[in-house]
Specification:
Elements: E1 5-13, H1 18-36, E2 41-49, E3 52-60, H2 66-80, E4 83-84, E5 87-88, E6 93-100, H3 103-109, E7 123-130, H4 139-157, E8 163-176, E9 179-192, H5 198-212, H6 215-218, E10 226-228, H7 238-241, E11 244-245, H8 250-253, H9 274-291, E12 297-304, E13 313-318, H10 326-336, H11 341-348
């Protein structure tokens, strides 16, 4: 295999994966507070295990009755599809341990002059876009998400019977000169009911591979390189099979390993936390640069200090043949984008209850809509990047 030919793999996990159950619940808490007060502060972590959910974190905003929160947690579990002996929306023990935000953190973020509102934490954030798919996402993570998303949609409508909520996927692709040419292997592990054997599981799952990936990319895929439940039976799953925590699937949430990740998780955080909002605006800028035809791919890094409004640095990397455009693009970014926490929120309309939907199948490569969801996926700034 030449240096210009390589294999690259990305994975996804379904909304029923224990960690994703936690992400969904944590983002539901963010939406609940923001829906009552758009400027609420939330940092919520969730843990799940056998028929138990524990919420902990810091909030500043309206008083919300614990029983309402418990009811909304049950709604989340029900919407995912869990009504099993080991984890059920009806019987799960739910504990809520949310308390007021630290005054020291609030002091760093608040400002008498709202324009100088500081970042909620220090850190580095990355945004990425490339021309591998229509959504300007890396192909392996795009297809990994799509397989599980289509399975979940059919499971919830009753079209896919016998498959349960907890699933994982993994797609390996052959690249030639940076372009994805073929899928070389696929792994899908999915929870199933006791009434379904492994042969039937394979029959149920295989069509979703064909629905999700273009035929030309499957032409070289051999049957023995499709692994469906490779360890065998997968009946006990979800939080009953494994403990879940908020924020453990950050590579699934972003670019499947094709781009660096800053280290901070997204779910459970209000948009004053630049772990979330700055990663969103970095994707927004990178996507508009690629959509403008400036380069086949774009990587952006932003860095922040707690209590400081403006980013400390902006790093940008393009395809090798376009590197001479980097300095001019950074000037354009500085002249056209307010990258303070307040500026990002106003640009992308982030003070809205738009976060629960982001918790599964990736925060990027999704469709923006009139509700304000996935506003960072719009390509409405391409004109300013025309060089």
């Amino acid at each position: 295999m030449s240096k210009h030919t390589y294999l690259f793999t990305s994975e996804s996990v379904s909304e029923g994966h224990p960690d994703k159950v936690c992400d969904k619940i944590s983002d539901m808490i963010v939406d609940t507070y923001i829906s009552k007060d758009p400027y609420s502060r939330v940092a919520c972590e969730t843990l799940t295990t056998t028929n138990r959910v524990v919420l902990a974190g810091e909030v500043r905003g309206p008083e919300i009755d614990k029983e309402l929160i418990v009811s909304k947690v049950r709604d989340c579990i029900k919407e995912i599809g869990y009504d099993q002996k080991g984890f059920s929306y009806k019987t799960a023990n739910i504990e809520v341990h949310l308390h007021k935000q630290s005054a020291d953190i609030a002091m760093g973020v608040d400002s008498n002059d709202k324009k100088d509102e500081g970042a909620g934490d220090q850190g580095i954030m990355f945004g990425y876009a490339c021309k591998e798919t229509e959504d300007l996402m890396p192909a392996p993570i795009h297809f990994s998400h799509k397989i599980l998303r289509l399975m979940a949609e059919d499971r919830k409508t009753g079209k896919l019977i016998g498959i349960e909520p907890d699933s994982k996927s993994q797609v390996t692709m052959l690249y030639e000169n940076g372009i994805p040419k073929d899928v070389t292997s696929i792994v899908i592990s999915t929870q199933h009911s006791e009434a379904v054997n492994q042969k039937k599981v394979k029959e149920l799952v295989l069509p979703y591979i064909q629905k999700s990936i273009p035929k030309n990319l499957l032409s070289g895929l051999k049957e023995n390189n499709i692994y469906i439940n490779p360890t065998g039976q997968f009946i006990i799953g979800g939080p009953d099979g494994d403990t879940g925590l908020t924020g453990r699937k950050i590579i699934v949430d972003t670019y499947g390993g094709a781009s660096p990740h800053g280290g901070g998780a997204f779910s459970g955080k209000d948009p004053t936390k630049v772990d979330r909002s700055a990663a969103y605006v970095a994707r927004y800028i990178a996507k508009n640069i690629v959509a403008a035809g400036v380069s086949k791919k774009c990587l952006i890094q932003l860095s922040y200090a707690i209590g400081v409004s403006k980013p400390l640095s902006i790093f940008l990397k393009l395809s090798e043949e376009d590197e001479d455009k980097t300095h001019e693009l950074i000037k354009i970014i500085k002249n056209n984008f307010d990258l303070s926490p307040r500026g990002i929120r106003e640009l992308l309309g982030l003070n809205k209850p738009i976060y629960e939907i982001t918790a599964a199948y990736g925060h990027f490569g999704r469709k923006s809509n009139e509700k304000g969801e996935f506003s960072w996926e719009k390509t409405d700034k391409t004109n300013i990047f025309k060089l």
